[in-house]
Amino acid sequence: MQDFLKLNNSIYDKWVLLVLFLFPIAGPVIRHWNNFFFLLITVTALIFVIRKVKRKILFREEKVFLWVFVSFFFVFILSALLNGWGNAQTLELGNELKFLFFVPIYLLVREVKLSRNALLCGVMFSLPVIFIFSVYEYYWVLPTVGRQELYGAYFHLFIGPITALMLLMIYPAYKVLFTTNKYMWLFPIYGFMGMFVILFSHARLAYLTILGGSFLLIFLIIKNIKARLVSGGLIALIVLIVFQINSVQQRFLKGVGEVKNYISQYKDIDSEIHSTSFGLRLEMWRSAQYVIKDKPLLGIGGGNYSNYIKKYTSKGLVSKAVEQANQVHNSFVEVIISKGIIGFLLLLMIFYYPVYLSWKNKAESEKAYLNFVVISVFTAGVSLMSLGESMLINKDNGVSYLIFFNAVLFSTLISEIKKDDR
Description:
The chain has helices at about 1-5, 10-20, 35-50, 60-85, 85-110, 115-145, 155-175, 185-200, 205-220, 225-245, 245-265, 275-295, 305-310, 310-315, 330-340, 340-360, 365-390, 390-395, 395-420. The longest helix has about 30 residues, at about 115-145. By secondary structure, the chain is mainly alpha-helical. The chain is built from 19 helices and no strands.
């Protein structure tokens, strides 16, 4: 933290560090916050590339990762052209361009020292900001609008999972920014703030993200088996206590009921179970098998699902309820439907190539292992979020998080592997 605050960088570098620091602070609670800072970093990066400033040589791993993002964008273009370009593809283009803009953004942040410190420092500030806005919404806004769940600036399925991701990143961020344990007392406060937002967002996806991510974090940072078991038991105890909250219990039991009913009734395509939250998702995921058989390599094109699926609803293979959906609420299924197997493999590379490289290098030093923890926790968070939503690949704000964090964390990883002193 001290090194970051000294800021012995150029004015240009300080500007980049400022944008990285501010990006994660208030995205879920202030509209257009993430898009504004994504625009700033993109324009800065494009200016940097156009100026052709002398840059450090790209390593093979970096070239591979950059080509993955470029290919992901062009698979969208090719699939859209083959399936017919329309208004849906024009609307999707803005999100897809962000994957292409990953290249100049990455070329920029890899040149700026302490870029990861700036971003993770923003993560440390994000929870207090989100908490303050959420307390105001919960006690002063919700009673006047007759709603129970926190929406933040957008929707409960954004503020809840993103807050869960930020809470998971707090411990790795602390270990990166501080070399002392004297501020460890902050963790219970962060935990309270984060869980307040997560619980009252009523987003089951947020519950899944924080629960699954917490168990992984314990496994990564605690080496002693007995200590792992004790810590896991404490988390289980906290879950049981939280489960006593009426709203949490209702949301959980309602979800379990919907899943059970879908499993027993999914063959009856006229059943009302297909219109429930879980029932609709499960039916859309089931429908993917038909799309994959028809369009295995490049998919049906982004934004075409609601129209293309009528081919199967008309035959009685899939419930007509899915015709109203414009996304399938799962990043992995969404990509394999819209971009085919090729796009799906590229998405796996985007998510897990950094984890693979950091895992290979984790035994080199404590710093290398910390890199592995940071990247693994972030990837676990986005993977769990992707199981119930596809915002990380087709929504402005979600894509911005994926691009920002991937660029910064991968740059720092390569710096550590290659001893490049970034």
